[in-house]
Structure formats: C-alpha cells, structure tokens
Automatic annotation (TrEMBL):
<dbReference type="InterPro" id="IPR019293">
    <property type="entry name" value="ThiN"/>
</dbReference>
<dbReference type="InterPro" id="IPR004399">
    <property type="entry name" value="HMP/HMP-P_kinase_dom"/>
</dbReference>
<dbReference type="Pfam" id="PF10120">
    <property type="entry name" value="ThiN"/>
</dbReference>
<dbReference type="GO" id="GO:0008902">
    <property type="term" value="F:hydroxymethylpyrimidine kinase activity"/>
</dbReference>
<keyword id="KW-0808">Transferase</keyword>
<dbReference type="InterPro" id="IPR013749">
    <property type="entry name" value="PM/HMP-P_kinase-1"/>
</dbReference>
<dbReference type="GO" id="GO:0005524">
    <property type="term" value="F:ATP binding"/>
</dbReference>
<protein>
    <submittedName>
        <fullName>Bifunctional hydroxymethylpyrimidine kinase/phosphomethylpyrimidine kinase</fullName>
        <ecNumber>2.7.1.49</ecNumber>
        <ecNumber>2.7.4.7</ecNumber>
    </submittedName>
</protein>
<keyword id="KW-0418">Kinase</keyword>
<dbReference type="GO" id="GO:0009228">
    <property type="term" value="P:thiamine biosynthetic process"/>
</dbReference>
<feature type="domain" description="Pyridoxamine kinase/Phosphomethylpyrimidine kinase">
    <location>
        <begin position="10"/>
        <end position="245"/>
    </location>
</feature>
<keyword id="KW-0547">Nucleotide-binding</keyword>
<dbReference type="Pfam" id="PF08543">
    <property type="entry name" value="Phos_pyr_kin"/>
</dbReference>
<dbReference type="GO" id="GO:0008972">
    <property type="term" value="F:phosphomethylpyrimidine kinase activity"/>
</dbReference>
<dbReference type="GO" id="GO:0005829">
    <property type="term" value="C:cytosol"/>
</dbReference>
<feature type="domain" description="Thiamine-phosphate synthase ThiN">
    <location>
        <begin position="257"/>
        <end position="422"/>
    </location>
</feature>
<dbReference type="InterPro" id="IPR029056">
    <property type="entry name" value="Ribokinase-like"/>
</dbReference>
Length: 428
C-alpha cells in the first residue's frame, strides 16, 4: 500500500514528513512525500520556515499522482494561503481517504500556519478531510469554541466528515480523545505518559491514515493510533538538548510476524481456507502468561474476493482466541510460540496425518456447561483437553451449535507455521 504525506520538512525527523515516513515504514506501508515548507528546527526551537513556491508544489503533486497508485493522503503543515489553494485545487476530486492534521504551531511555540491563512484553511483544507485530528488548542483556533463537543460540531459543519479532538480530558493517568463521526460520537481513552515530546500528533494522524488505507473502521483506526502513539512516546529518545523525539521500536518478533502474514497472503488460493470468523496469526513472547504477551492482528486476516487483506494492526493482545490457544500449548511445550487458524477441511486433516504431523482434536459438544458460560474459556478447555505427550502441529474441532469448525496450526515461530500451512493447503 502507498500513502502520500503532504507537509513540512523537519530536519530533526521529529515531526513533519520525515516522521510520517517512519510511521508508514513501521506499518509496512510505502510513503511518498510532497514538501510544502522547509523548516530549520531541532528539539529546542524553530529558527526558519521557508515555504516552497506554488510552481514547485504543483510539480511535486503532479509527479506523484501521475505515476503512482495512492491509497490515502495525509495533509500536515501548509503554512500560507498560496499553498492551501494549490492543495485544494489538486485534491478536491481525489477519491481516497484524506487525513488532515492541523499544524498551527510547533511544540516549541513557533507559528507554522500564518494567521492570514486561517480563513482559507477553514474554507479549503478542512472540507477535504475524511478525518481531521486537531488537539484542544487547534480545535479552538479553528472553531472559536472551547467546549469540545460544540467545537467538533462546528468543525464538522465546515465540511470535515469525522472530527477527532485529541487530549480532551486527563484523569486517573488516562488521556481521552473525542470522536465525532457523521452519525455517532464517542470517547476513546488511553494511558498518559508525562513526557513532553516532539512528534506524537504526526504519529497519531499518520497511523490513522494507515488504518483507513487498509479499510479499517474509524473506531479501530483511533484505537490503533492511540496505542501506536503511546508506544512511540514511551520509547521516545532524548537525543537533543530540548524535548524528546517520539520513536517506535519495531521488535524482531513483530517484523517476523509481519513478514509471515505477507507470505501467508501470497499463498495460492489461500482465500479458500479463511473461515467465516476470519483468520488471526499470532507470535508470543517467551513463556507468555497473558494475552498482552502475544502479538496478533487487532482485527483479522479477511477474505476480500480472491484476496486476503489485513484488517487491523499487529499489536500485543491483538488476538483473544488464537492467542489463548498458543499460551495454553506453550505451558506444556515452551518451544511452541506461534499459531494461525484456518477453516476446517477433512482433506487438510488427512494431508496433515499423511505428512506425519502430530494431529490432535477435541469435541466442543462435550465441553462442560460451566466452561461454556465463562468468557473466553472454551479455547483453554479444548486445547488443554487435547494435549498429550507430543508437541502438536495441528489441533482441530468440528464445531458445535453456533460454533464454527476450526483448524489451528502451531509452530515454533511464524515461519514454521507458514511452512506447515503452505504444505497443508497446496491441494487448493
């Protein structure tokens, strides 16, 4: 997938298009950039803002749109009316999700949107937004209203489809974002880290652009972005003499799972084994104890025609059911740390047995009533009742009333799981 970031250049890579490129790369997205202004800044201050010419801006946008497929666009710093007018004229007929991140002033206090351009910004940039992500200060600057809900409604009346006002409330160590979609409103909260940082707003809006490009719901996009920003602030680096720069560590485990997910999606006819409840693919830390110790997809691997697409992001705690299965198997066989679920098919089971895989099963109809009534306990019951002295490659069940039949494939790591899946589904 490809996303275009239109915004200012930050030589410290804390914010702006450089920050967006880092976020896109962390999500396995190819990022394009169009520079609206060249800034001279570091972690302490902005010393210079030099906007590009209209001619340069037009040429940059044309060079990207004429050659590449774009799945989403993020608009950041625009600085003046001339830039605003060019962006509006070039993007008003674009049919991909557009995320607008209002950049009015920097963390260090420098003005990054001219006062004289605010009227044109509200008239020409805000209406382009499928979602706009102002913080409390930016929301008030755009709407003239301090009340969060009224401010969001005013901004929505300017033409933005969805308005997200970030950092609206802070209590009990949590910080909340207010979301106003076209037909509903809600609040999403997350942990607050008391670190003054450079880049969290860019991380947030870029992550939302990624989720929308992948076809996720706004609710899931906001949840994912909030988690991404939390991680980027928690891992922020004090590499300059001023504020910390946000940074997201991509673990080797996350990269390995991401690579294997991409491999899975490329297996011939793999869409045929995606069950009705969809597929998840997980990779646990060593000796996992809880779901938060297991990487999984926050949504699912979803069948879309004859393709499989990732709906969601790779996060710790991303899969309840497959994650629980891995934890249960890992208790007895610590080398098993990865698993994936596919549709039950007797041909796959027969091939697994023929291939000398260790194949186990359990009967969901025999599950005790007490276990059935307890939230998320069926997987634990089934897996623990199926295990024997040999480490499993495959565990399956044939379903029950309201429960889809399923196959779980286990391995030491995601690559191991992929090798088994490729072998077992090659007859399709």
């Amino acid at each position: 997938m490809n996303i275009l970031s239109i915004g200012g250049s930050d030589p410290s890579s804390g914010a702006g298009i450089q920050s967006d490129i880092k976020t896109f790369s962390n999500h396995d997205i190819y990022g394009f950039t169009v520079v609206t202004a060249i800034t001279s800044q570091n972690t302490r201050k902005v010393t210079l803002v030099e906007p590009v010419s209209a001619k340069s801006l037009i040429a940059q946008i044309d060079s990207i749109l004429s050659d590449f497929h774009i799945d989403a666009i993020k608009i950041g710093m625009v600085y003046n009316s001339q830039i605003i007018k060019v962006i509006h004229s070039k993007l008003r007929k674009i049919k991909v999700p557009i995320v607008v991140d209002p950049i009015i002033k920097s963390t260090t206090g420098a003005i990054l949107l001219k006062k004289s351009a605010l009227r044109d910004y509200k008239k020409m940039i805000v209406p382009l937004a499928d979602v706009i992500t102002p913080n409390k200060f930016e929301a008030k600057a755009l709407s003239g209203i301090s009340n969060t809900k009224k401010s969001a409604k005013k901004i929505q009346s300017m033409g933005a489809k969805c308005v997200i006002i970030t950092g609206t409330t802070l209590s009990n160590g949590k910080i909340s974002d207010f979301v106003l979609e076209e037909s509903k409103e809600y609040v999403i909260s997350g942990k607050k880290i008391p670190i003054k940082n450079h880049g969290s707003g860019c991380n947030y809006s870029a992550s939302i652009a990624v989720s929308l490009a992948k076809g996720n719901t706004m609710y899931n996009a906001v949840k994912t972005a909030k988690d991404y920003v939390y991680q980027s602030i928690r891992n922020s680096k004090k590499i300059g003499k001023g504020v910390s720069i946000t940074h997201k560590n991509i673990s080797n485990g996350m990269r390995e799972l991401s690579d294997s997910i991409n491999h899975f999606k490329q297996i011939k006819n793999i869409y045929k084994v995606i069950p009705e409840c969809q597929t998840n693919f997980v990779f646990a830390k060593k000796n996992p104890k809880i779901i938060k110790d297991v990487l999984g997809i926050s949504g699912r691997l979803v069948k879309s025609g004859k393709e499989v697409v990732t709906a969601g992001e790779i996060v710790y705690g991303g899969s309840q059911h497959v994650g629980t299965a891995v934890i249960q198997v890992n208790k007895k066989f610590p080398k098993i740390r990865s698993s994936l679920n596919i549709k039950y098919n007797p041909k796959i089971i027969a091939k697994a047995k023929k291939s000398k895989f260790t194949v186990l099963s359990y009967d969901r109809s025999k599950e005790p009533k007490k276990s059935k009534q307890k939230e998320n306990s069926s997987i634990s019951w089934g897996i623990s009742n199926s295990l024997n002295a040999k480490s499993p490659d495959v565990i399956y069940h044939k379903g029950d009333i309201g429960k889809e039949a399923m196959i779980l494939i286990f391995g030491k790591n995601p690559s191991d799981v992929i090798q088994k899946v490729s072998k077992l589904t090659s007859f399709h």
